[in-house]
Amino acid sequence: MTQSAIQADVNAIYAQQATNEMGTARYALLFEPGTYGSQSAPLDIPVGYYTEVDGLGQDPSGVVINGGVTATGNGSGALDTFWRSVSNLTIHVVPTADGCHTGAEMWAVSQAAPMRRVEVQGVPGASFATTFMPYCDNPNFASGGFVSDSELTGNTLNGSQQQFYVRNSNLYNGWSNYVWNQVFSGDIAAPAQDFGGGAAYTTLAATPVSREKPYLYIDGSGAWNMFVPSPQANSTGPTWANGHTPGTSIPLSKFFIATPSDSVSTINNALSKGLNLLLTPGVYSVDSAIKVKRTDTVVQGLGDATLTAANGNTVLTTADVAGVDISGLIVDAGPVNSPVLVQIGTKNGNNGVPHNQPSDPTGLQDVFFRVGGPHVGKATVSLEVNTPYTILDDLWI
């Protein structure tokens, strides 16, 4: 694609999604390995609601954006800048005509808008390279973000962010400012722990246990794969800092690629045959539970794929098996009350004997639950976890 075609598509999607907070459109912008934009002609990627921006390299260096990937407020702050993401690419910041938003990498979000596996290279001599504060807005409030497995070179402006969690990242020149609660675990150049002044930095030298979100990539032969990172214990810094992230590659041929027109019975039939599940962008009306029964099954949504309970049912369950990974989903309650929306494992499964081990934990990454919002919603329990050794990484419930 030409850069002008890419920019036109990006702008058209953003024009639709910038204020589409309760809409049903979903988008994933996937960049094949290569370099996009240049110093003289940068590519600016504004990111609206329900939009995921991913590089398809095996490492963040595989896709380089000369320009910016921008999430910001609505003119009066970023307190409702939700439901979007950026991952697995390098952003070489190049200012554009709108220098306010792209003089630094601006990812000014509140909740449910993760940044993962991103390297930010700032403008030489700039006062900061990355900002999580919508400093172009008035007021410029923001309320909560999540960054993991990333390298943020240059200074990072946290500014008005009320709470933030940064895990297994390299902050190089540190972190400026806090409002209330900022948590760091396994980060290089994190600020020292500080509980003074009505605010707090909580700093852990290492992350006790973690499992990064699986990601799509295109290998050297042009084949599509899902890479499943290995779990880590007592880890520090990004997984890719010294080479490829440790883990397992699964060819995309081992996935059932679902669309919202696929029935739950079709999806469950594919899972029962040993396939993993990739949910393409859209809103799925789920009238009975999607059932994950096989060890090490991967279930991933693209573009904030949304599972909506259609008749008071549970939308997803897992059996008492090890190593299941579920990521990139929004789960919506429906108008009939659901006793449980997502259930991981069964109560008293295996007579209380753990069926998995720390070496193969179940993981949930970037899974967000809503009861009400786009429509009437009722649920008693959003997420029930019965499986020991389950890692919950960036959930919004």
Q: Indicate the low-confidence ranges by residue numbers.
A: none
Helicity, as a percent range: under 10%
- Tally of helical runs: 3
Shape: globular
Count of strand segments: 32
Spatial extent as radius of gyration: 20 Å
- Protein structure class: mainly beta
* Overall pLDDT score: 94
Largest β sheet strand count, sense and barrel closure = 12 strands, parallel
Strand content: 35-45%
First and last CA, distance: 39 Å
Question: What's the layout of helices and strands?
Answer:
Blueprint lengths: L2 H15 L9 E5 L2 E3 L6 E4 L4 E5 L7 E8 L13 E10 L5 H4 L2 E2 L8 E7 L8 E2 L13 E4 L2 E2 L3 E2 L5 E5 L7 E2 L4 E5 L14 E5 L2 E4 L4 E4 L5 E6 L2 E4 L11 E5 L3 E4 L5 H9 L3 E4 L3 E4 L3 E3 L5 E12 L6 E3 L6 E8 L5 E7 L17 E9 L8 E7 L4 E7 L1
Name a few traits of the molecule.
397 residues, mainly beta, 3 helices, 7% helix, 41% strand
Q: What would you note in describing this structure?
A:
The chain has 397 residues and is mostly beta strands. The protein is built from three helices and 32 strands. It has helices spanning 3-17, 99-102, 264-272; strands at residues 27-31, 34-36, 43-46, 51-55, 63-70, 84-93, 105-106, 115-121, 130-131, 145-148, 151-152, 156-157, 163-167, 175-176, 181-185, 200-204, 207-210, 215-218, 224-229, 232-235, 247-251, 255-258, 276-279, 283-286, 290-292, 298-309, 316-318, 325-332, 338-344, 362-370, 379-385, 390-396. Strands 1, 2, 3, 4, 5, 6, 8, 10, 11, 13, 15 and 16 form a twelve-stranded parallel β-sheet that branches. Helix 3 links the parallel strand 22 and strand 23 (276-279). The longest helix is centred in the N-terminal third of the chain and has 15 residues, at 3-17. It is globular and about 60 Å long.
